[in-house]
Amino acid sequence: MPLSLSVLRALQALFPGDGLLVKPEETLIFGADASRKHAPADAVVRPENTEQVAELLSLAQTEAIPVYPRGRGTNVVGGCVPERGGIVVSTARLNRILDISGEDFAVVAQPGVITGELQEACRARGLFYAPDPASARFATIGGNLAQNAGGMRAVKYGTTRDWVLGLTVVLPGGRVLTTGSRCHKDVAGLDLTRLFVGSEGTLGFITEAILKLVPLPEAQASLLAVFASEDDALQAARAVFASGILPTAMEYMPAEVLAALARLGPAPWTRGTGELKSNGAALLMRLDGSGEAVAADLPRLRRAVESLAPAHLEEARTSADEEALWEMRRQINQAAYQFGPDKLSDDIVVPRGSVGEAVRRIRAVSRELGLTILAFGHLGDGNLHVNIMYDASDPDQAARAARAKEGVLGLTISLGGTISGEHGVGLTKLPWLERMRGRENVEAMRRIKTALDPMGIMNPGKAY
Amino acid sequence: MRHCDHQDAKSGENRKSCILCGKCLEVCPLYAATTREELSPKAKFFLAQAMAGQTPGISEKIALELAGKCLSCGKCEKACPLGLCVPELLSGLRAAHPNIESKLWQVWVEKARVLWPMMATLSRLMPRLAPDGGGGGFKGWLAGAAGGLRALDSRTRLAPWLKPVAFEACGKGRKAVLFPGCVAAHVKPHWTASAAKILAGLGFTVLPTPDFACCGNTLGHAGLKDAQLRMQLKNLEAWRETGRPELVSFCATCRCGLRAYVSRDLGWRPDEREAWLAGLAPFSELARRAVYEVLPNAPATVHYHTPCHGAGGGQDADFLRKVLGDRLKTRTRKNLCCGFGGALKLSAPELSDAVAKRCLDFYGPEPNEQILTGCSGCVIQLRANAAESVGVGHWLEIIE
């Protein structure tokens, strides 16, 4: 239902100039995210402070208008799509870092700050914000908080939730809640901070976050190892942990991914002719710590993987050399489109001991249905990105892709895993949540939502 | 080979559709300056898809106007995992839907000889013509354009502070002709004179400049492909008549535009493409063959602005670093652009100026510091937007 004239007038008063968009040509992009799903927004607003958000959520509650928080629309499960019409709230102008404290080891930021820029600003002060999702350079802290983003360094440092000390959240109706504090330990009352992180914008609108920092590790280094077979790579991963090393990151790339990346440009695993050095799989690992610790651990890491006779082994000790390796890893999601114009994307997690089993069973699904399925990613913490590539314009392929997704998520649940390690549930995984969690569990989530959002206006129809 | 005119024949790739990954937001200077996602590359591709699919409620006129707000910097193409390029998209859209904005630019470039000096003079009268100084409507537009026009005034050059004291004889027995480009040909003739002096110092025989037209680069961005082709053919013919000497350009964007000629069917004769490209390296490759002395009037700090087009392998910056040492600051960001942006300068000067402001804020020049660059458009734009006390110029200007 389009917005009434009185609502539009109120929005105009609240968001002057280009702070409000209503022309369909201008609002078009705000109806879509990286899931490539789209629904038209009735309006888009760009608040610049918490007060504007509070007034907006008061108006939206009174008028029962759905509200959709949006960073840069990089969510891959449809979390930003305004499925029921209403108002998209862009955080693009809530984009300031308010304080970086080397005394408190805390950074205070608004949700529209780019994660990579926050990391850089802290790094310049000798401080470290560890969560590092692949989209860090173009996605926002707000989106990371809403989805509890993980990323490459989660194996050692955990996910976004582990780095949040406190939040300022505007609740539907306009009340402003501050949760947590600058304290690094705080157990007083229910942990509302951890409740809002990962709630996918369904409980309130975060306008400020206090994030934890640690001293910047003095040194880091990376090691790329390409193995003759998938089994060798998986065994090498076990060998690394068995040697007593906890890497900062441990990423897994199977043969299809290595081939797709090689087609984007020169890759370490190709010869001059463009031919792959191996048809196996690769591990990309990183260590950090003091200079002495990294210097001692890198040869240990190398020895651990050398037991599996890798076809290619490459160390990167300078930031430029490391960046070249990690940029390859960040390109995978986009490179995947070489195997088909459409993809069903999942980010399953299985108990770490079951990763090998999961990889083998996913490959069996791929063979059975005749589709390319890429399973890659954060092997170190059991989190695999599964991209089922297909052509949606071919009804047969679309049907097979749906069956493949069913197969992958089914086997994940049977292995005691979860349907999402970091992307969230959004729209695209919603049908699976109850199957995994059970009805009681999902109903409990909905009761919590009702307590905070009685009219159900915050990002409705998503997550649970 | 990719060129800055963004018109490579990527026939297969052109059909790829944007996957909305958002990587372009990291590099788009227009998005960075405005925080308006509707102006981002991904928004433009999504809008173009909606137009092609005739999505209800989308007006073609408004959509074109919105999509057309682009700086043509080409940074999105480098960031996009699929190699999608907004200038290329727009070039096609504009050619299919000619509009006022691109026609305006066509007049501007085609009539450069007449218009630019005249408008540079007129712009000094602007305060009287537009007393509100920046309001809406035509007056507002005039006021926005006035700063840019004032920058074209040939009297505002930087005082030279770098003196060539010795030259290598690398030009002995070689013939060269300078391609001045619109700005130097019409309002900054001293750039051409400085470049000619360096060439002569190196021993080149510098032939008289024939009647070259605009390189045609911005016409391509504006979708004016016929006009672009006319200018390309005219320039090729002028070069042939001069005896096909080494063609030398000191404007990064012109050089990039000229290099793109060889990927077009312009009726090239055997071996002509190689001869055309022979001299089209960054001008600093030649300038560095001299030894310079820094004069006492040199500013303490100089900022280098990298042009979006034609920066090659960073030769200009390397040359300046070598000659100027620590006084040169080359700090940059992925989404930095002067905001000149071809047709955008005319159609949406307020957006163009917002991009320039962000760029200048990043360099943060103090009074009496200078900003040097190697592209005519960047000079005009930054000079128009920088504080009076900050010198802005082509790096050629500092050479005596």
Please explain how this structure is put together:
The complex is a heterodimer of chains A (464) and B (400). Chain A has helices at 5-14, 24-27, 50-63, 115-123, 141-147, 154-157, 192-196, 230-242, 255-264, 291-306, 319-330, 332-335, 355-369, 395-414, 430-437, 439-452, and strands at 20-21, 43-45, 67-70, 87-90, 97-101, 106-109, 127-128, 164-170, 176-180, 205-212, 214-215, 219-227, 249-253, 281-289, 312-316, 342-349, 373-378, 383-390. In chain A, helix 15 (430-437) crosses helix 16. The model of chain A has no long low-confidence stretch (mean pLDDT 95). Chain A folds into four domains: 5-90, Uridine Diphospho-n-acetylenolpyruvylglucosamine Reductase, domain 2 (2-Layer Sandwich); 97-215, 2-Layer Sandwich (Uridine Diphospho-n-acetylenolpyruvylglucosamine Reductase, domain 3), CATH 3.30.465.10; 219-333, Alpha-Beta Plaits (2-Layer Sandwich); 340-424, 2-Layer Sandwich (Alpha-Beta Plaits), CATH 3.30.70.2740. In chain A, a hairpin with a 4-residue loop joins strand 5 and strand 6 (106-109). With 464 residues, chain A is an alpha+beta fold. Helix content of chain A is 36%, strand content 21%. Chain A has 16 helices and 18 strands. Chain B is an alpha/beta fold. Among the domains of chain B are: 11-97, no CATH class; 296-398, Rossmann fold (3-Layer(aba) Sandwich). Chain B has helices at residues 11-14, 29-34, 41-52, 60-67, 75-79, 86-96, 100-110, 112-123, 126-129, 137-151, 181-186, 189-201, 217-221, 225-241, 252-259, 272-278, 284-287, 315-324, 344-347, 349-363, 376-385, and strands at 162-167, 175-178, 205-206, 246-248, 290-294, 302-305, 328-329, 370-373, 391-394. In chain B, the strands form three sheets. In chain B, strands 7-6-8-9 form a four-stranded parallel beta sheet, sandwiched between helices. A three-stranded parallel beta sheet of chain B has the order 3-2-4. In chain B, strands 1-5 form a two-stranded antiparallel ribbon. The longest helix of chain B is centred in the middle third of the chain and has 17 residues, at 225-241. The radius of gyration of chain B is 21 Å and the shape is globular. The two termini of chain B are 37 Å apart. The model of chain B is unreliable at 8-14 and 129-135 (pLDDT under 50). Chain A binds chain B through residues 18, 21, 23-30, 32-34, 36, 40, 46, 72-74, 90, 92-93, 95, 112, 114, 135, 137-139, 264, 331, 333-335, 337, 341, and chain B through 16-17, 19-23, 25-26, 34-38, 40, 42-43, 46-47, 50, 55, 57-59, 62-63, 66, 81-82.
